[in-house]
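Possible regression after last week's pipeline update?

I re-ran a chain I had predicted before the update to compare outputs. Posting the input and the new output here so someone can diff against the archived version. Not blocking, just want to make sure nothing changed silently.
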Amino acid sequence: MPLDKIVGLLDGLDVTQLDDSARFQLKEAALRLATRTETPFEKAWSLAFEHPVTFAAIQALIDAGLWVKWAIAGARQTVAQLVALDGKIAENLLRRFLRLLSASGIVNEVEKETFELNTFSTALGADSDIIRQVIQMGTDTSLDSAKNLPSFLTKTKYQEPLDNELSNFADLKGEGFFAYCKNNPGAGKSFIDLMQGLASHKMAWTEVYDTTELFSQPHDPNSPVLVDIGGAHGLDISRFNKKHPDLPKGALILQDLPAVLEMAKLEPNISAEAYDFFEPQPFKGSRAYFMHAVPHDWPDHDCLRILANQVAAMKPGYSKLLIYEVVLPAKGASRMQTTLDVQLMSLVAAFERTEEMWETLLKQAGL
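New output (post-update):
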């Protein structure tokens, strides 16, 4: 097939009707094609020069409030119209940013001096600020932490970091990641919103696990049905509640630190209870204790402390511990999985686990 026809076919593909599995397969194939067609110089240039300034342009327009104003005004706007919306950004500065963002696929250049929001940039201006907060976490914590990682590893003689308080992030900021988020509410919010974004991006756990199994035994009305440990805004427990909407108050418990629970918007029958999972679990004999992306933030010795508190509260033969986490395959881990793994090392001296590592950890916890 002639090259111009191949390019036309690729540019003309309608991806809007694809289900998530097909979309993912096509995306990964397109990325493999991009990798095969890039020269080493182009790859290095993209990593060291394109990505940093593209990120900076996105963040600058978040700070200026332009994405939200643009989304309200309508997807297609001229440079002059966008300047008028913002009221403070210099016209040629915005023009230079928009040219870069168009070349990077963040916005679409539809004609001279006219740009249009696409799916991603529309999300940047949405009422929900999750996408903006994902970018914000890059600015608040992850980019500087990644930049510091090579020099930190020279200090440790390239040993695997496994202590949050002696981590790469602590080397950079003088305190561990979780302490930093507690002491800097803006960074704490961007972290929690990133976690919510990841949870929203994944398949709902209630579609992976048959939750009706939790009702296979008679329920003790004096104990909860589900305790969501470290559940942040409550997305996971709300998903459970939608599948089982008739549960009374006290059956569903969302646990997290007080500052996190303040951001939760819950249905009336879900109880929010402040809890530090390094302390004994106060709710005894729940049918299920649920953790989503909690153990992966901690090395094994800390995980065993967390798990011991839940095991002590569980009723043998009745209670279950449900963990919704990444399981690294022995071969062919995805970019999402490997990115999470090394980001965890960079930020909190933790890691994603293989199936074998999970089995070892849970057996050590007595499960």
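Follow-up from reviewer: compared with the archived run. The two ends are 58 Å apart (CA to CA). Marking as no regression found.
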